[in-house]
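Submission checklist for the structure archive. All mandatory fields must be present; incomplete records are returned to the submitter.

[x] Identifier: GDSL-type esterase/lipase family protein
[x] Organism: Megasphaera intestinihominis
[x] Residue count: 189
[x] Sequence attached
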Amino acid sequence: MKLLCLGDSLTYGFDVRPDQSWTALVSAKSHIHIDNEGQCGDTTTGMVYRLHQFDLSRYDAFFIMGGSNDILLGGELEKICQNMRTIVTTFKEQGKPVYLGIPPLTKMESAMYGWQNASDVEKHNDGLRQYRQWLLSYGKETECIVIDFYEALLKAERRTGRNLYADGVHPNAEGYAVLAGAVLKAMGC
């Protein structure tokens, strides 16, 4: 299977070696060839803009995850959802499976790394929670296969008692392995 993954730094695999990103781990543990089109700092508006760059007919399935940067930059939930609808609709027009990723929460330590102000962490996480609820509902409505990275990372941290973040926004290598496990499970690998 050839899979196009469109997203931001969470899809790209920021802050780990290329072979430790969730996309590389999924490829290594399956027969899935992934074109990783995660771009650090990208927003859902940027992803809509980048859609025209791809020959979608070359792919067997599509993965999309975005919205974290929009929320960290103070973007409106309505606009984020509108952009995601555009992307999913474009992918769905191909008549192939669409996987919809739900981004994880951020942590207070993200402020030390300059990703957001400490006073904004809870507000942004509230936005991510609302967005998650919308994605769960929208995924069901559009028959996308939802991959809940938010829940996977949260459960893994509770289960292991370990910090799975590198900088409060991006997973560390162990965290990306958790995300890869969630993808493999969702894809039946």
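[x] Structure attached
Curator remark: Residues 121-142 form the longest helix (22 residues). Residues 2 and 59 are 5 Å apart (CA to CA).
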